[in-house]
From TrEMBL:
InterPro entries: Exo/Archaeosortase_dom, Exosortase, Exosortase_arc. The chain crosses the membrane at residues 32-49, 61-80, 116-138, 150-170, 182-206, 218-246, 252-274. One of its GO terms (molecular function) is peptidase activity. It comes from Methanosarcina mazei (Methanosarcina frisia). GO terms for biological process: proteolysis. This is Archaeosortase C.
Length: 278
């Protein structure tokens, strides 16, 4: 039991560091992002999943290694060719490719952790392609409605009850009249779907690794979605309050770091709850 609890702590630290790395590289400090990445890699080698060695998910094959290397190379080449920065989808695609490579390496620790990473990244990429790519292709206006009705209006309503005036001026935009006049757009990453996708990937991967039954897995997935949603409402409210009392500069600083910190805390609650229900 002590070894299992140690593994859970290490998993959460790795996920928090990795998520922080992705956020810092795309929105904050590249140097901080690299430090977080190196720290996460160091911790990866210390995780030992007792069931992963017998999962038989992927047979040893050069084909899987080549596929993983191709995914990593293709994504990096595409971004370099187009002069673009690595986005969240790119980071998770690279994570999937690297994890696929890792499952074929002779080191058992790297192989086991890579299988867990493959679950997380593949779930994220699939959900991203469904909600952001497929919905856009078929002109399904889910994301704007989700941002407006399930994120923006509830958070504005809560602060309205507290006497803080926020004016909704567009589907995903509010005007804040605090220490300075400014507008905030609540959309894209602010919808909280990225964190939700990651948490779903964590629960799904952990359920496969620890051989959880279907009912427990579905229950935990529902719990995961609910907690992720509520946590994002809290995050948006914190950003509103920061902008209202301290201005745009401080709000942007908080915006860069608060998301992955809350994600780490939420992941901890979910993993703890999973252990109680096992």
């Amino acid at each position: 039991m002590e070894d299992e609890n140690k593994n859970l702590v290490l998993i959460l630290l790795v996920l928090a560091l990795f998520t922080g790395m992705a956020v810092e590289i795309s929105e904050g400090s590249t140097t901080v992002g690299i430090i977080l990445f190196l720290a996460s890699v160091l911790l990866l080698t210390r995780i030992n999943f007792k069931h992963l060695g017998n999962s038989g998910l992927l047979k040893k094959s050069k084909t899987y290694f080549v596929i993983g290397a191709f995914i990593v190379s293709a994504d990096l080449y595409y971004n370099f060719k187009n002069g673009g920065e690595l986005g969240t989808l790119d980071v998770m695609t690279l994570f999937f490719g690297a994890s696929l490579i890792g499952t074929q390496l002779p080191n058992p620790q790297i192989e086991r952790v890579s299988r867990f990473g493959m679950y997380i990244s593949s779930v994220f990429v699939i959900l991203y392609l469904i909600f952001y790519t497929m919905f856009a292709f078929f002109n399904i206006d889910f994301l704007h409605k989700f941002d407006h009705y399930l994120i923006l209006l509830p958070t504005v309503g809560v602060l309205g009850l507290a006497g803080i005036p926020l004016e909704v001026i567009a589907t995903e935009t509010v005007r804040i009249s605090g220490v300075e006049e400014m507008t905030m757009v609540i959309g894209g990453p602010c919808s909280g779907l990225y964190s939700m996708f990651l948490l779903i990937g964590i629960v799904y991967g952990y359920s496969r690794i620890e051989k959880m039954n279907v009912n427990k897995t579905l229950m935990m997935l529902g719990f995961c979605v609910a907690v992720a949603y509520i946590s994002n409402l809290f995050r948006v409210i914190v950003l509103y309050l920061t902008a209202y009392y301290y201005g745009q500069g401080t709000m942007m600083l908080v915006h860069t770091h608060i998301g992955w910190i809350i994600f780490a805390a939420v992941a901890g609650v979910i993993m703890y709850f999973i252990e109680l229900k096992r």
